[in-house]
Amino acid sequence: MTPMEPTGAVRQSAEAAVQVSTVVPDVALEHRRQSERRVALAPELVTIRDLKMHFPVIEGALFSKEVARVKAVDGINLTIRKGETLGLVGESGCGKTTTGRCILRLEHPTGGEILFDGKNLVDLDQKSMQALRQKIQVIFQDPYSSLNPRMKIGEIISEPMKVHGTEPNKAARDARVAELLRLCGLDPKFADRYPHEMSGGQRQRVGIARALSVRPEFIICDEAISALDVSIQAQIINLLEDLREQFGLTYLFIAHDLSVVRHLCHRVAVMYLGKIVELADCDELYSNPLHPYTQALLAAVPVPDPDLERARAHRIVKGEVPSPMNPPKGCVFHPRCPLAVDCCAKIVPEFRELRPGHWVACSVI
Amino acid sequence: MTVATDLDTRVELTEERKRRSRLAAIGRFARRNPLGAAGAVVIIVMVVVAALADFIAPYNPVANAFDRMHEPPSFENWLGTDQYGRDVFSRIVYGSRTALLVGFASSFVGATFGLVLGVASAYFGGKIDLIFQRILDVFMAFPLIILALAVIAIFGTGAQNVIIAITIPFIPRCARVVRSSALAIRELPYIDAARANGFSHSRIILRHMIPNVMAPFLIMITAFVGQAILLEASLSYLGLGVQEPTPAWGLMLQGGAEEYAESAPWIAIFPGIAISLAVFGFSLFGDALRDEFDPRLRSL
Hints:
By secondary structure, chain A is an alpha/beta fold. Chain A has helices at 8-19, 26-40, 96-103, 126-133, 153-164, 170-183, 200-212, 230-247, 258-264, 282-287, 292-299, 306-311, and strands at residues 44-59, 65-81, 85-89, 111-116, 119-120, 136-139, 218-222, 250-255, 267-272, 275-281, 351-355, 358-361. Chain A has a domain at 8-56 and 67-135 and 216-279: P-loop containing nucleotide triphosphate hydrolases (Rossmann fold, 3-Layer(aba) Sandwich), CATH 3.40.50. In chain A, 35% of the residues lie in helices and 23% in strands. In chain A, strand 7, helix 8 and strand 8 form a beta-alpha-beta unit. The termini of chain A are far apart. Chain B is mainly α. Chain B has a single domain (48-299), classed as MetI-like fold. Chain B has helices at residues 2-32, 34-51, 53-56, 88-124, 126-141, 144-155, 159-186, 189-196, 201-209, 214-237, 249-252, 256-259, 266-293. In chain B, helix 2 crosses helix 13 and helix 4 (88-124) runs parallel beside helix 13 (266-293). The radius of gyration of chain B is 24 Å and the shape is globular. Chain B starts with a helix and ends in a 7-residue tail after the last helix. The model of chain B has no long low-confidence stretch (mean pLDDT 86). At the A-B interface, helix 4, strand 6 and helix 5 of A face helix 8 and helix 9 of B.
């Protein structure tokens, strides 16, 4: 299977998954099951242990004092296996992007460790980090602001190669740019264009080509398809899947669109207010969500049939997301939880493995 | 063969179309912004006069003629002569060179330093930014002319020192404006992408940030040129700028011009008009450029 022409079934299934969120065709399902079995045996690539990212809220300029802390990420544990796509879902402001930024070391975590290939990224010195940056790449949400408007596409894609010295001479870099553009479904002639001359989907392909340019092992897709329209989303999902197969990539797929995550990911972690509340294999999570928050999230996915949609019992979570500056005591979800009992306000729920591979942070279930 | 010819004509056609679209763009600019276009005309005239001063000026601007002092405007001396018998028109024509040299040099150097400092300040942020901005505040607290006078007091007079004296007060003003644009750019994903890739600070500042703050930078340069010309004239008028006998507009207003204001007003009036026109032209053009490129900067 070449990246240019994925099998019809896969392409169709991606489109179907986006449009009809509840139905996943059998071919794709079988395809993923195989890939899941393969991944379950793979070694761990990224291990996150008790990661904390608290942003200080500072008052006063020169003689400043910390008045509060925004607990964007508050003690999460995750492992990502080689070749796996781990979905990280949750509503806005739950800390999923911050988690990605910590792995990229765009933020310096307040606590915990991030092991990549056994090396702790949190306390790595600049020089060793520089070598690792080549292996960890990122694709951003907004295809319009993630490319420098003053640089040509060719320059954008070849710059990481130049800095990391993967292709020392210019001719080799140009050849690689052409190869990458073709790989991402673009005409190599685009190398001489500027980002504003391209459409959103094309720009996102450039973003992917830039991420691939230095042959990374791990790519963080930070809402990589959220800003695209539905038909383009399907194309980009297929591209990401093809690239994963071809180069043995590992993805951390940050998203809020549950149907897309269902199609692409092997396992899914659900985040709420800086904590992971549920982690399970993709099929398990969708067919048997255990945490009340996950249940509410899945119930909120609209059904494309208007009659069914009207007849469906809506279970809307009450209230608003509390401020991460002052999260609720005990279980962070308890003020909004339909199952909450007295002890939820006091005891921080343990992250337990209720079924094999299905982890939940809830003391009631 | 026919294919090649066909291609050639097509290339020519696109060239022609490009030229025409550029002309059309200028036409649109003039229609939308007639004052800006007027400013542009003043600037062009000034540049042409300065470049061709040797051919335009009828007399040597520094040659005294004591038999022809205080002559009113006539066919021989279009704008009259001054207290040393020098031709006022020739001195204004050559004075445009001084004005443009000082204006462009100081605004370009000042704005460039401001650009680098402003972008670096925004990029590094935190304590560095804070301390740097307070230093700029100190400089900004002085009016332009006072700061320029202080610099002259340190370095002494002369064209070169005048340029330095005018450059220094421009740096904090440009740095402030550029910093505000750079702060917005720093948060954009393509800067994150550069940082995530481990690009060096200098690469991010020079290749990713500075090219994206060029709009406010160019606007600042044009706006500064007018101010610099005015400042140079003020310094020369105070006797602290360009020294006699170099033709400079501010200098022409000094000395004799005051003494003979009633008996020979042309000595003062014409250089005064030249200064006003030049400043007016650059200000109008700068405003028009700003409206065209970045309407958000209107409050400056």
